Amino acid sequence: MARVPDWVEPMLAKPDGGRLRTGPGWAYEYKLDGYRCCLRVAADGTTVLTSRNGIDFTAEFPSLASVFGNALGRAAVLDGEIVACTEDGRVDFGLLQERRGRYQKHHGDAPFDGTPVRFLAFDLLRFGRVNLLDQPYDRRRELLERLPMPDENLVTVVPAYTFDQLDGDGLTPQDLLHRASAEGYEGLIAKLRSAGYSPGRRPDSWLKHPLIRTQEVLVCGWKPGQHGFTGTLGSLLLGAHDPATGELVYLGDVGTGFSRQDRADLQDLLEKRARRTHPFAVAPPREDVARARWAEPDLVGEVQYRQFTRGAGRLRHTSWRGLRADREPEEVLAPTAMPNPEPAPRRPPGKKITVQAGKRRLTLSNLDKPLFPDGFTKGEVINYYSHIAPLLLPHLAGRPVTFIRYPDGVGGQQFFEKNAPQGKPDWLKTALLPSTGSRGSGEDIAYPLIDELPALVWAANIAALELHVPQWTVAPGPKRRPPDRLVFDLDPGEGTTIVECCRVAERLREVLAADGLTPFAKTSGSKGMQVYAGIRTRSADAPSKYAKALAERFAAETPDLVTAKMAKALRPGKVFIDWSQNNPAKTTVAPYSLRGRDRPTVSTPITWDEVRRCRKAGQLVFTADEVLERAEDVGDLFAEIDETRAPLPKR
């Protein structure tokens, strides 16, 4: 028997954060719901199937262990997925699970031949003596597609679509995602065409974009938590009414998506509804409900899920969304099949479109161009700024804006721009002011004034991702008015995060309030945060002096946490209170501005409760989509900054 090649630990796909990557560097494959498998073939056809975690699958799937025979003529290692399909060809994980159950009961007295399965190959890792791990995806894919497939009912290659191929057909990756949904797949995997294969790693070159659905459920019980959740609720046991019979059926459980407060509140509610036995028409599997505590099924909740397995009737990959007091228990029906949404309409080809923004007509270009590494496009930037405009524009009105532009996207060349660029629309308002700062030439600068929706859309279309403004406005003439805002820019040094900034911000809030000011907080959209207050003063220099005095006081009181000096060598392990942002020549990122980072994060106003509760840096990171959702719930948390202006204290 020829030697079977060594097992290769599989490369794993990383979640894409909800943003499907686009651009000519990417290829897309359907996300499969089966058992990940490394198929290793010796030169004589001897085959070994190995699971993701190194378990030998060969005996469990004998039809796949003999499929290649000697068709390849040399050794090979393929990466792929073992799946089971329904009669209409849809991948169904429930069938595979049922097959696994029968196999585990099989005692080996005869060859096992259960539900038919297929091996869907999506990568070639070795062919003959050639190790392909360092070869780019495109090359591995090219070789994979050349392999003979002796029986396509048993083994085939997963279709792949490059961005350029889709674009040539007038389609987008989003169109392909809708097709995947309609055909019953879990979603898409975006793969970087230039990247090699990284065994055992989860790099940024394979990114999964799952389809997520929501389902109303009845909370029928709970299981106590373990490890970090000992002493509180660990997961909920879910049910719904069978649409055909009306009987209460078991749908599975959910153990993620809760805050600690959610867990405590739900446990309290369920303990008040305690019952001794389960409420289902048919008892759930014993292994699912070990340690279960049952409750009357009258609480309606909602979960996110990726798939409903029709055979077993289970929701898979669930996450808790919350209780639904607006639903009656009798209304909660179990899903009967995977929904098949209508395919997305085809996008007409073309690089430019004309739109109406307010009273202006604008020509927009390259809307599909990714401007962020995560695939966030120029069209999505324009969409964000268009929808956030009612909250953002009041904080730009009357303030000369400095752009940070990313014409080639984040990661490409960026540049600051104070002068309104050539080719600006005739209707764009500007403020002609002398240059300031140590590098100022003394010449006048025509700063753009972004005080209406068309101006904001125009700025987004020229890839002005970041909008920075001073703490003063301009009067007709134009001339600078005295500062009307005070700002403390809290910058975490190496070894610290926004969590430490929040502790400093809480102290600042107390001092500012004691001085008669009303403080407001926002994230920077990057690593740190800012604390603001509306002020009244006639002196352009007074805010910097006041802020510097407070910063130095904090540094003296807590030298291990705070520094008021700009030198980077002094910042590790400390929060730098940058008081100099109050200098009339300086600008600070505007509330609701995007930032040029790996993801489209936003400088986001936050509540003081959020500041107080912050214990992890990720708690105060908000993307464009999340900020739009927040805006619907909380409005503009900076709305009262101008109404609460108070005299700047002297220090």
From TrEMBL:
Species per Swiss-Prot/TrEMBL record: Amycolatopsis bartoniae
One GO term in the molecular function aspect is:
ATP binding
- What gene name does this entry carry? lig
Matching Pfam families: DNA_ligase_A_C, DNA_ligase_A_M, LigD_Prim-Pol
Q: Is Ribonucleoprotein found in the keyword set? A: no
All copies of domain ATP-dependent DNA ligase family profile, residue ranges:
110-242
GO BP field: DNA recombination; DNA repair
- Membership in a protein family: In the N-terminal section; belongs to the LigD polymerase family. In the C-terminal section; belongs to the ATP-dependent DNA ligase family.
Taxonomy, superkingdom: Bacteria
PANTHER family from the UniProt entry:
BIFUNCTIONAL NON-HOMOLOGOUS END JOINING PROTEIN LIGD
Give yes or no: UniProt keyword Ligase: yes
- EC top class, in one word? ligase
Q: Catalysed reaction(s)?
A: ATP + (deoxyribonucleotide)n-3'-hydroxyl + 5'-phospho-(deoxyribonucleotide)m = (deoxyribonucleotide)n+m + AMP + diphosphate
Q: Name the InterPro entries for this protein.
A: DNA_ligase_ATP-dep_C, DNA_ligase_ATP-dep_cent, LigD_pol_dom, MtLigD_Pol-like, NA-bd_OB-fold, NHEJ_ligase_prk, NHEJ_LigD
- Keywords, alphabetical: Ligase
Q: Can you say what this protein is called?
A: DNA ligase (ATP)
Reported EC number(s) for this entry are 6.5.1.1
